Amino acid sequence: MKACGAAAGAAAGLPGGLPDGIEFRDASLGDAEAMAELEKLCFAIPWSLENCKNALGANSIAFYLVCLLCGELIGYAGLWPFAPEGHIMNVAVHPGFRRRGIGAALLGRLIDEAGERYGLSAFTLEVRASNEAAIRLYGRFGFRGRSRRKGYYSDTNEDAIIMWRGEPADGAGR
Ligand SMILES: CC(C)(COP(=O)(O)OP(=O)(O)OC[C@H]1O[C@@H](n2cnc3c(N)ncnc32)[C@H](O)[C@@H]1OP(=O)(O)O)[C@@H](O)C(=O)NCCC(=O)NCCS
Question: Which DSSP helix (H) or strand (E) runs through 157?
């Protein structure tokens, strides 16, 4: 990936905050290819291009934000709004740009926007039990583990931790 300005420092692992030249906006269908490429870099079982097109297409109810650096997609986050709950689907940041606050910026914006646009008051997600980075990120936003799904991830038979921010509507924490 080419980098510009302060982004070159980020790519080299230099310390600092959000890189210069960064922007956040709603995702559109035109982001599907870049999103699918990022999926391959970020997940053991990445979404295909078709999955990404479906998530971003006109018939999707999903809400996605992307993060761009000098016009290139380096992160995204999305959720399904099932009022009063938002189901967070994915948060992903390009490996060359991690630990710069981008994941937190995406998640924070996603939660704020979802509250404003859809009136969501609680959020839930599932995360691999071994994904310490993501669990810590979610923890910083008030997500807490409420239950576990045994062997949820088919590639490793790993458990999923079900995390919630706010109270589930039925109070059970599925
Ligand atoms: C999880 C992920 C999105 C974090 O993105 P990021 O831009 O590096 O996160 P941030 O820089 O905003 O970090 C915010 C906080 O998350 C936690 N965190 C992030 N990466 C971490 C790591 N490698 N180890 C421990 N904590 C980590 C820290 O609390 C961090 O705050 P700090 O830097 O002040 O300590 C990124 O690692 C990623 O894309 N991982 C692969 C995809 C994935 O697993 N997504 C989650 C699926 S449920």
Answer: none
Alpha carbon distance 17, 101 (integer Å)? 6
CA 147 – CA 162 distance, rounded (Å): 5
Whether 108 and 61 have beta carbons less than 8 Å apart is answered as: no
> What's the confidence (pLDDT) of residue 6?
41
Instruction: List the chain residues with pLDDT less than 70.
Output: 1-16, 171-174
Judge contact between 23 and 31, C-beta under 8 A.
no
Full set of structural domains in the chain with CATH: 20-165 (3.40.630.30)
Q: Which of 93, 155, 156 to mutate to test the pocket of ligand 1 (most atoms within 8 A of CB)?
A: 93
Q: Which residue's alpha carbon is at the smallest distance from atom 20 of ligand 1?
A: 133
In this structure, the residue with its CA closest to atom 40 of ligand 1 is: 92
Q: Evaluate if pTM is beyond 0.85.
A: yes
